[in-house]
């Protein structure tokens, strides 16, 4: 149990730090007209989860260490669904309905495709 908690904590810390760096990078180059940083981490996080799950299944890695470190820890700290929801709420308050629609649809569709692509890449 302690080893699992440590794996989740280390992965989560790394994921959170990387999420912050992506946020800084995206705001530096693209501003805040579209929440690009959150979109990037959500899609990339979906891809990483798919890739990791594909590796675990392909190589029959049933010990759970990789799953806890990367899928639960890293991706849990890296992806930002709560930020996604909050940013959509802010866009709604500002009346940016077309941006909301684009952001939600592209995040969900591209995220699902990224999970699939990650799993296919392992095969």
Automatic annotation (TrEMBL):
How the protein is activated or inhibited is described as: Na(+) is not transported, but it plays an essential structural role and its presence is essential for fluoride channel function.
One of this protein's GO BP terms?
A: cellular detoxification of fluoride
How is the protein disposed in the membrane? Multi-pass membrane protein
Task: State which residue ranges cross the membrane.
Answer: 36-56, 68-86, 98-122
Coiled coil regions, renumbered to chain:
none
Catalyses: fluoride(in) = fluoride(out)
Q: Does the keyword Membrane apply?
A: yes
Question: Which keywords fit this entry according to its UniProt record?
Answer: Cell inner membrane, Cell membrane, Ion channel, Ion transport, Membrane, Metal-binding, Sodium, Transmembrane, Transmembrane helix, Transport
GO molecular-function term, one example from the UniProt record: fluoride channel activity
Which amino acid positions bind Na(+), per UniProt?
Answer: 76, 79
Which cellular component terms (GO) are annotated to the entry?
A: plasma membrane
Location in the cell reads: Cell membrane
Q: Tell me the function of this protein.
A: Fluoride-specific ion channel. Important for reducing fluoride concentration in the cell, thus reducing its toxicity.
Q: Which family does it belong to?
A: Belongs to the fluoride channel Fluc/FEX (TC 1.A.43) family.
Q: Which NCBIfam families match?
A: crcB
Give the protein's recorded name.
Fluoride-specific ion channel FluC
